[in-house]
Amino acid sequence: MPSATSPPISMTRRSPPGLPRTGVDEWLGLVVASTAIPDQARELGGNGQTLHFHATDPDLDGTGQWLVARTPSGITVAPGHAKADVAVRAPAAPHCSC
């Protein structure tokens, strides 16, 4: 058992490189799959509106980017950088339960 003078134990957990990107890929895949349900497709569908998600984690080297498009039949997701109606930039790692 640590004594009163022992330094605190660090519980910082680091994700392996690429794991947060994989988590976002899987989450976006689930969103797309949910549009196979007609009610979900109606709720998530649109008329061509686009969102660009950009994970800013330094170890992703630009690979953590996706373009999401809302179409009348649901949602499409494509990896990569593109101009969009809305851009979201944030680190993926703190939001990934990896």
Keywords summarizing the entry:
24% strand, Nonspecific Lipid-transfer Protein, Chain A, 98 residues, alpha+beta, 4-stranded mixed sheet
Describe this structure in words.
The chain is an alpha+beta fold. It has one domain (19-95): 2-Layer Sandwich (Nonspecific Lipid-transfer Protein, Chain A), CATH 3.30.1050. 23% of the residues lie in helices and 24% in strands. The protein has helices spanning 19-34, 38-44, and strands at 50-55, 65-71, 74-79, 86-90. Strands 3-2-1-4 form a 4-stranded mixed β-sheet. A hairpin with a 2-residue loop joins strand 2 and strand 3 (74-79). The protein is globular, with a radius of gyration of 18 Å. The model has no long low-confidence stretch (mean pLDDT 79).
Shape: globular
Largest sheet: 4 strands, mixed
Can you tell me the number of structural domains? 1
Encode the helix/strand succession as letters: HHEEEE
So how many helices? 2
Structural class: alpha+beta
- CATH class term: Alpha Beta
Helix content: 10-25%
Tell me the Rg in angstroms. Answer: 18 Å
Q: Classify the beta-strand content into a percent band.
A: 15-25%
CATH architecture: 2-Layer Sandwich
The largest beta-sheet arranges its strands as 3-2-1-4
The average pLDDT score comes to 79
CATH topology: Nonspecific Lipid-transfer Protein, Chain A
Number of strands: 4
Name the poorly predicted regions: none
CATH superfamily: SCP2 sterol-binding domain
- Give the CA-CA distance, first to last residue: 29 Å
